[in-house]
């Protein structure tokens, strides 16, 4: 159900679960948000509720604190950034369901916005014990008359502010979640062809479910990033000191065989940018994938491979990309990710950048977000959707 189904929100207290989990760096004791993409993506729903006259109460998490207050994970700098983006004052409660929260919500006028302190400062939020989560969700629900679920990045979590609270208040899906689900559905139900999937990032083991599911749907699978070395090793190549998941070698061999049977083309890099140690730009050099020196480690796909990936993307009508091709934060190892991102911007069809690191990468490399069909705000959530798993935060909104 959409926000409209909640009826007239004027004067009503609306609790919005957003995903404001952004990367923070500390500069001499001052928190600096290095990528505010998720905060910007959360603005339209918050603004919509504010314009409808609601008293808007935003709940969100930052990082993975230990179920207790920890200043290193305070949402205060995020609330400040949200205020800048909204162009209005945003009140901040220094707890989530305590005295500060009650007083802050009490003080909201029509259209005002407040952010509650990190919901994961409360052990009830992530508890595996249903009763413990439920009692925390009861407290959260007391702060509001209605609930809007707009934190797509957390809908795969069965947590109090995502799942249990929706059982306690009239609830609706925010526009961000609705758009994300709509796009992901287009990647899984009858995608336009050719359908090319690009996977990178450090671990094969994080992507097993997605590969299993997408091998049945995609026409081509391009593999780069740290995970590619396990694939290369499984092909009998030496990978030196590169990332390697010994326990996934057999799985990689099976994927290559399965792809062949299904007529899915798996494209692996033919050249690699290696260095003597992690991030060591001075020693960066390109070698054939079959000649990675024993003492070196691979940190990016090479230029020839990047061009081959771009060529494979040129006629695609549907593309899903998750995971950088190399250590893009370091210029000498950003080439593969840059070329792939560039190729995605030219896709004549639906191009989706799947969350987390790849979304941060395209922004950090200076690409305009509008050049892509869709940049997902969800990392784990979009992968779990593509694995075909049920997302608790969605299922709870769709129940009868
Ligand atoms: C994310 O960063 O993918 C979401 O905010 C979820 O965070 P989590 O993995 O700590 O639950």
Short description:
The chain is of the alpha/beta class. It has helices at 37-51, 76-86, 99-106, 123-126, 130-141, 175-188, 208-214, 228-234, 249-262, 303-314, 335-345, 356-364, 380-386, 392-398; strands at residues 13-17, 24-27, 30-33, 55-59, 90-93, 113-116, 146-149, 171-173, 195-199, 220-223, 265-267, 271-275, 285-288, 297-301, 318-322, 350-353, 374-375.
Q: Your description of this structure?
A:
The chain is of the alpha/beta class. The chain is 34% helix and 18% strand. It has 14 helices and 17 strands. The strands form four sheets. It has a six-stranded parallel sheet, with helices on both faces. It has a six-stranded parallel sheet with strand order 11-10-9-15-16-17, sandwiched between helices. Strands 13-12-14 form a three-stranded antiparallel sheet. Helix 8 packs across helix 9 (249-262). 3-phosphoglyceric acid (3PG) binds at residues 19, 21, 64, 153-154, 157, 356, 379-380.
Write the layout of secondary structure elements.
Layout: E1 13-17, E2 24-27, E3 30-33, H1 37-51, E4 55-59, H2 76-86, E5 90-93, H3 99-106, E6 113-116, H4 123-126, H5 130-141, E7 146-149, E8 171-173, H6 175-188, E9 195-199, H7 208-214, E10 220-223, H8 228-234, H9 249-262, E11 265-267, E12 271-275, E13 285-288, E14 297-301, H10 303-314, E15 318-322, H11 335-345, E16 350-353, H12 356-364, E17 374-375, H13 380-386, H14 392-398
Parallel strand pairs: 1-4, 1-7, 4-6, 5-6, 7-8, 9-10, 9-15, 10-11, 15-16, 16-17
Antiparallel strand pairs: 2-3, 12-13, 12-14
Helix pairs in contact: 1-2, 8-9, 10-11
Bound molecules: 3-phosphoglyceric acid.
């Amino acid at each position: 159900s959409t926000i409209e189904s909640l009826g007239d929100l004027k004067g009503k207290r609306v609790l919005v679960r957003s995903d404001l989990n952004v990367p923070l760096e500390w500069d001499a004791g001052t928190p600096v948000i290095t990528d505010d993409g998720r905060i910007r993506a959360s603005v339209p729903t918050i603004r919509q509720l504010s314009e409808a006259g609601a008293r808007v109460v935003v709940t969100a998490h930052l990082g993975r604190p230990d179920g207790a207050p920890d200043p290193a994970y305070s949402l205060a700098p995020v609330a400040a950034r949200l205020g800048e983006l909204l162009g209005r004052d945003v009140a901040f409660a220094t707890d989530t369901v305590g005295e500060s929260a009650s007083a802050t919500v009490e003080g909201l006028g029509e259209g005002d916005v407040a952010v509650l302190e990190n919901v994961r400062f409360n052990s009830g939020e992530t508890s595996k014990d249903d009763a413990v989560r439920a009692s925390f969700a009861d407290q959260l629900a007391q702060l509001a008359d209605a609930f809007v679920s707009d934190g797509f990045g957390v809908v795969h979590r069965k947590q109090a502010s995502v799942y249990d609270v929706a059982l306690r208040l009239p609830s609706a899906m925010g526009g961000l979640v609705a758009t994300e689900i709509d796009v992901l559905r287009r990647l899984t139900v009858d995608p336009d062809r050719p359908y090319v999937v690009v996977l990178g990032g450090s671990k094969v083991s994080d992507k097993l479910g997605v590969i299993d599911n997408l091998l049945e749907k995609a026409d081509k699978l391009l593999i780069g990033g740290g995970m590619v070395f396990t694939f290369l090793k499984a092909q009998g190549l030496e990978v030196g000191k590169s990332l390697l998941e010994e326990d996934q070698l057999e799985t990689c061999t099976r994927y290559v065989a399965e792809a062949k049977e299904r007529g899915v083309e798996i494209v692996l890099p033919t050249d690699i940018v290696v260095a003597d140690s992690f991030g060591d730009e001075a020693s960066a050099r390109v070698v054939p994938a079959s000649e990675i020196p024993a003492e070196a480690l691979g940190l990016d796909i090479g230029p020839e491979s990047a061009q081959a990936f771009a060529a494979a993307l040129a006629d695609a009508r549907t593309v899903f990309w998750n995971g950088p091709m190399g250590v893009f934060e370091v210029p000498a190892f950003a080439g593969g990710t840059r070329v792939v991102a560039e190729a995605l911007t030219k896709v004549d069809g639906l191009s989706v950048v799947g969350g987390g690191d790849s979304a941060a990468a395209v922004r950090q490399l200076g690409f305009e977000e509008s050049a892509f069909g869709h940049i997902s705000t969800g990392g784990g959530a979009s992968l779990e959707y593509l694995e075909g798993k049920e997302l608790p935060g969605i299922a709870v909104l769709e129940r009868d």
